[in-house]
Amino acid sequence: MSVVAVVGAQWGDEGKGKVVDLLASRADCVVRFQGGNNAGHTLVVDGKKSIFHLIPSGVLHAGKRNVLGQGMVIDPRVLLEELGRLDETGRLESAGIAISDRAHVIMPHHLVLDRLREQTPGGSVKVGTTLRGIGPAYEDKVGRRGVRIGDLLSEERLRNVLAGALEYHAPHIAQKGHAVPDLDETVRDYLDFGKKLERYVVDTVELIHAEIETGRKVLFEGAQGALLDVDHGTYPFVTSSNTVAGGACAGAGVGPRSIDRVLAVLKAYTTRVGEGPFPTEETGEMGERMRQAGGEFGSTTGRPRRCGWFDAVAAKRVVRLSSASDLAITKLDVLSDLDEIRVCTGYRVDGKPVDALPYAAFEKAEPVYQNLPGWKTDIRKARSIDELPENAKAYLRFIEDVTGAKVSIVSVGPEREATIHVQELF
Ligand code: GDP
Ligand code: IMO
Ligand code: MG
Asked: Any idea what the Cα angle at residue 122 is, between residues 120 and 125, rounded to 5°?
């Protein structure tokens, strides 16, 4: 097996960063294929915590290739800051950074538009975005007025494309009483970013194919999670890219036949940041308990994450959406104090039972719960399935049974070593 895609299977923050860092030790190349710095991926290595928003989570292993693929939207200012941090820790030279010349660029007007919409939604819903300009950047891409990384290397191209985009957005921005970013100033700043990034800019499609064809191991790193997918998530409370495994094909430039295994990352319970339906949410004391036990505060915006029970109906759907062969179950340790653990096995909408994700009525879906017994044992030192208490093993079996996928990784703490490798993926 040489190509594995790792994707989030809930509303993000499932622990993808930790899982990708683990797998990266055996991979040669890690590729981000969608999203931007709305992502926050946390790695804990040798007691030290690192959070990356744009750079792939393979960078803490020297000598790997770390690729920012063309399906991403990249804020060059943020990327340069992250590269600067890598440099300070002496990791930049061995990080093998490559940036797609075709990835889209988050421009100042995207940040303005994201903020304006969230403050005064008129006409659009308040989503509780990360305010990083992600949605507006993808809109310009699809509207065929987006600036791409390659455009930052040519003043003429950058000026032309940006002038068109600003002309399109200026009336709306001005009408909302906000200053329209200045064309000359923006061109100057972004050409400067282009100069600083130029050494990393390549055609990443050729690079990725060369890796695959020479038998090197490639890891596709998803950001966000399937329930935030623009097509399959809880629309309109979603992000603006395809977060399911298929997104790796379009966003990195490979066909589905190139991906050997898909690993879906599922937290042992559920969290969500921002607005939108969340049927198994616990808003009271239980939710607070999970938030404290799991340290559930956003790695990008610091917002407290909403917490609730594991949703088996959603998990089953998501495994299908990504044809996931394998599961990584993370944060199992967070549930260790509970006498009983609830899992949602169906919904009721207007009193009627439903066993699939309802289209329009998701916000009205009331969860139907099954109670599973807790294990009441500290499992943070378990390093094999046999070291887990019976009830924890039964919890994992329950998840395998409802999803039809195999648990290959169990995470019992934030650190690299707090992991049970049930089966190697590479
Ligand atoms: P990502 O966006 O999917 O990469 O996840 P985040 O990094 O945003 O959030 C996951 C958080 O949980 C981070 O703070 C991780 O350090 C932490 N984490 C990951 N796996 C585990 C685990 O098994 N147990 C505990 N207690 N924390 C974990
Ligand atoms: P990682 O990769 C959790 C959520 C935002 C908001 C919605 C749209 O760390 O799992 P956007 O800024 O993308 O337009 O916001 O999506 N969101 C995330 N939630 N983890 C993420 O990334 C997220 N990226 C976006 O909170 O509800
Ligand atoms: Mg995150």
From this structure: 85
